[in-house]
Amino acid sequence: MNGRLEPHIRILLGSSIAIGPGKAALLEAISETGSIAAAGRHMGMSYRRAWLLAKTMNACFREPLIEAAKGGIGGGGARLTATGREVLALYRAMEDHAAAAVTSDMERLRALMVDEPPEDGPADRDMQQLPYRAR
Fold this sequence. Notes:
Helix content is 53%, strand content 11%. It has 135 residues and is mainly alpha-helical.
């Protein structure tokens, strides 16, 4: 059996995903690259998509997670705030705790599944784009 199971956590605030796997990865990419645009490129998304995700995250927390400077001759940039670093660390800890809590259930579930995962069909890719509650 090669298909690995892993739980994914999304933290919803109303209908907005405050943080989830993709947004956590975006925070890490911004931290590494110092740029929303570069982080988006690194993740294979447009600047607009990365900026909208950053904007949503900032709106969901009492303090911004990301600070951005306007571009121009000297260039712009972005960085995680102290709150951004704390949220990312808390989210990663929650992922670890959740994975540990469901290990035996995941093993039992995996035993009921086929050995190789199927190819993602169009419906599977479409479902990945839906908000969590719509699934």
